[in-house]
Amino acid sequence: MSKQIILNAFDMNSSMHNSHGLWKHAESKRHKRYKDLDYWIDLAKTLERGKFDAVFFADVLGVYDVYQKSKEPSIRDGLQVPINDPALLVPAMASVTEHLSFAVTVSTTYEAPFGNARRFSTLDHLTKGRVAWNVVTSYLPNAARNFGLDKMIRHDERYDIAHEYMDVSYKLWESSWEDGAVVEDHQTDTLVDPHKVHEINHEGQYFSVEGPHLSEPSPQRTPVIYQAGTSEKGREFASKHAECVFVGGPTPERIRYYAEDIRERAVKHGRNPDHVKIFSFLSVIVGETTEEAEQKFEEYNKVWSADAAKAQYGASGYDVAEFEKMDLDEPFEYKKSTEGGQYKAATLTKDAPKKLTVREVLNRFESIDRNSVIVGNPTEVADAIQFQFEASGVDGFNLNHLVTPGDLEAFIELVVPELQKRGLYKKEYAEGTLREKLFDREARLPDDHPGKAYAFRKEVVR
Ligand SMILES: Cc1cc2nc3c(=O)[nH]c(=O)nc-3n(C[C@H](O)[C@H](O)[C@H](O)COP(=O)(O)O)c2cc1C
User: Fold this and answer.
1) Contact present, 325 and 230 (Cβ < 8 Å)
2) From the alpha carbon of 398, which atom of ligand 1 is closest?
């Protein structure tokens, strides 16, 4: 059987994710309904009907405040604000589904590892092993100030912290509780055998954690590890820890380059490259006919907000208002390096399909970037998806949706059957936890994963 596409819905527990200004579109329901649990319950059922593998929840811990050195443009346009906690949606969405999984973004820069490990163990228990953690290091200056820092920790150090954070997490998940620690022995009045529950006594550069972990082992112990970040440091981190990587890049060629680089680095870390699945971004506007899809594209463009798009570009650490002062006909380049998200910055320079002028860069924000969205009838859309899948060598996509839930429903109704007909997409779910579904192996980490080195062994018991 040919390789099949793994598909996640790319979402956020927010009034608006990547659809700048589209809250004004008559069919957009999300800014009114994202705070209504029924909205998410309905979405979970819709996604399972479409055989989606997971819903991938992005998250931020601050307001975009780089553009115009102000929070106003992002707040005015509802750019990822208001935003609620994504993890809290998962149990409700899991309760109405059997197979859909949940990837939840949590930053290693701001949240303490002890509490985060318990959060994911809880979710893994409640979902029966259908949970993944998207590890990010974050990029918003406002987030730093929300967590007591004057300014952001530097880009590369954020990844150093993330490496140690992972070690702490693996110790809690893999080495603190032995299997069978809950003995429920009436004769000795023992529910949990204290000899089978261990402190981790982690003392490192950034964290000090005694333990033991508070949760008993969950179906996967360590949740499936996702990572998103495509800088040199980001790829090095991904190739060591991630089982799924969300790669940023505007062309199939650049995505292939990043995917191959991550797989090669994984081999250097002693890992089987097939144990790392690569995902890229996908955005689709589909209609029954080409004309209908083009009409939707035009309607969406009419309400598009250039200001919100510019504010979101602040994730790169660069202020688009500064680009507006440059000579418009000069080739575009940055004047200094960034401490923000390097994947984002690269989209306008080294990852761009051609050298851009300042004018071309600024034009990109004015409307929906036609190069980043597939518009067409079901056959045209499936052709384009198949091309991207084959040309980039990814294993799957995080599917963006501009008008929600309408665009997702249209995708499921019109595109999914076409992909299934071509053998590119599953007709039935595989059984088991997310890790079992993705890798057709056991629920727990494979032996070549660095977290497995911490798995409980008698000789490491203190
Ligand atoms: C495709 C993609 C999606 C991302 N999603 C998020 C997110 O939801 N929340 C977040 O804080 N960071 C997100 N990040 C960025 C990470 O925080 C990343 O660790 C940080 O920006 C550094 O990225 P870099 O390695 O490309 O420089 C994302 C990055 C990529 C490439």
Assistant:
1) no
2) 1
pLDDT digits (tens, 9 = 90+) for 164-201: 999 999 999 999 999 999 999 999 999 999 999 999 99
**What is d(CA 15, CA 22) in angstroms, rounded to the nearest whole number?**
10
Instruction: Give me ligand 1 centre to Cα 229, in Å.
Output: 5
Q: Which atom of ligand 1 is nearest to the CA of 12?
A: 8
Give ∠ CA 153-155-158 in degrees, rounded to 5. Answer: 60
Task: Please state, in angstroms and rounded to a whole number, the distance separating the CA atoms of residues 440 and 272.
Answer: 14
**Position in ligand 1 atom list of the atom nearest CA 232:** 25
What is the CB < 6 Å shell around ligand 1?
A: 58-60, 105, 107, 136-139, 155, 228-231, 234, 246, 248, 341-343
Helix axes 252-268, 378-392, angle to 10 degrees: 40
Q: Strand 54-58 vs strand 6-12: parallel, antiparallel, or unpaired?
A: parallel
The H helix count followed by the E strand count for the chain is 18, 13
**Given the structure tokens 């936890």, which residue do they identify?**
433
- Class of residue 269 by CB neighbours under 10 A (exposed 0-12, middle 13-18, buried 19+): middle
Q: What pLDDT is attached to residue 342?
A: 87
Sign of CA dihedral 417, 10, 226, 51: negative
373 — phi, psi (to 5°)? -135, 135
In the reported structure, the alpha carbon of residue 139 is separated from the centroid of ligand 1 by a whole-number distance in angstroms of: 7
Closest CA to ligand 1's atom 31: 229
Q: Which of 65, 136, 278 to mutate to test the pocket of ligand 1 (most atoms within 8 A of CB)?
A: 136
Domains of the chain (ranges; CATH) run 6-296+372-460 (3.20.20.30)
Measured between alpha carbons, how far is 77 from 19 in angstroms, rounded to an integer?
10
Interacting residues of 78 by C-beta distance below 8 A, sequence separation 6+: 15, 16, 23, 31, 308
Contact 114, 132 (CB under 8 A): no
Pocket test for ligand 1, best of 85, 138, 338 (most atoms within 8 A of CB): 138
Q: Is the peptide bond before 82 cis (omega within 30 degrees of 0)?
A: yes
As a whole number of angstroms, the distance between CA 234 and CA 11 comes to 22
**The overall pTM is greater than 0.70:** yes
Q: Which atom of ligand 1 is nearest to the CA of 57?
A: 8
**Residue 343 CA, closest ligand 1 atom number:** 26
Q: Whose CA is nearest to atom 4 of ligand 1?
A: 228
- How far is residue 4's CA from residue 2's CA, in Å, rounded to a whole number? 6
Q: Tens digits of per-residue pLDDT, 98-115?
A: 999 999 999 999 999 999
